[in-house]
Amino acid sequence: MIQSLTNIHPNALIGENVTIESFVTISEDVEIGEGTWIGPNVVIMDGARIGKNCKIFPGAVIAGIPQDLKFNGEITTVEIGDNTSVREFCTINRGTASKGRTIVGANCLLQSYSHIAHDCVVKDFVILGSYAGLAGEVEADDYAIISPYSAVHQFSKIGRHAFVAGGSLVRKDVPPYVLVANEPLSYSGVNSVGLRRRGFSNEKITEIQDIYRYIYQKGINISQAVALIESEMAETEERNLIVNFIKSSSRGIVRGVEE
């Protein structure tokens, strides 16, 4: 269903049962999956690939060109997974030659006025709070929550099931399963409330807490802590995720509150 007063390029690929409200602009190189709702005053530019059953609320701008001075007009994309909601005035820029695409996964909630810059990778079930911003090439793993008014430095990584408190300035990588807050941003414990909501057992949460005691409470450096975790803790999916995240961190992880 397409309302009047829209500007839709005839070559745009629009799936079945898509609703497009008034005053929407859709460019030529756009694909929209079936069942998606596009609210009034939305602008969807070249390179947008929007999945099924998404909701794009008024004022959102999808696939604007990157705000990167190195961008030279290359053909790139924004790819949004199924069932994702993009709330009012959210902006998502397409990729650059660096990675070629900006990715937002399935079942995400991008709240009003949030921003995702070029070449970011936002995986499934991520929540990005109102006015939160991701700079270029940020990665946010599944179920991460980045609370309102937070700003994430370019190339930073947010781990799976991590919770970033409101108004945070994220300059280092945030490991999986943790809660971070304060200024400068610091480890504030394991995200136990969020993990319980997602079905983690008390035993599994205790295991994760024990791992982070090595990292933040034993008075040793990160390399020493990882070595002890690998030698003393049983190998599990959660242990491996934490260890591999830390080993692959190029920016370094957030520090403990007393460091």
- In terms of DSSP E residues, the strand content is 25-35%
Low-confidence segments: none
Supply the number of structural domains.
Answer: 2
Extended strand count? 28
Structural class: alpha/beta
Taking the sheet with the most strands, its summary is: 11 strands, mixed
Inertia-based shape: elongated
Q: Report the CATH superfamily of the largest domain.
A: Hexapeptide repeat proteins
Helix content: 10-25%
The side-by-side strand order for the widest beta sheet comes to 3-6-9-12-15-18-21-24-26-27-28
Explain this structure.
The radius of gyration is 20 Å and the shape is elongated. The chain is built from four helices and 28 strands. Helices cover 17% and strands 27% of the residues. The protein has an eleven-stranded mixed β-sheet. Strands 1-4-7-10-13-16-19-22-25 form a nine-stranded parallel β-sheet, with no helix packed on it. The chain has two domains: 7-137, Hexapeptide repeat proteins (UDP N-Acetylglucosamine Acyltransferase, domain 1); 195-256, Udp N-acetylglucosamine O-acyltransferase, Domain 2, CATH 1.20.1180.10. The protein has helices at 192-197, 202-216, 222-232, 237-248; strands at residues 7-8, 13-14, 19-20, 25-26, 31-32, 37-38, 43-44, 48-50, 55-56, 61-64, 77-80, 85-86, 91-93, 101-104, 109-110, 115-116, 121-122, 127-128, 133-134, 139-140, 145-146, 151-152, 157-158, 163-164, 169-170, 178-181, 186-190, 255-256. The protein is α/β, with parallel strands linked by helices and 259 residues long. The longest helix has 15 residues, at 202-216.
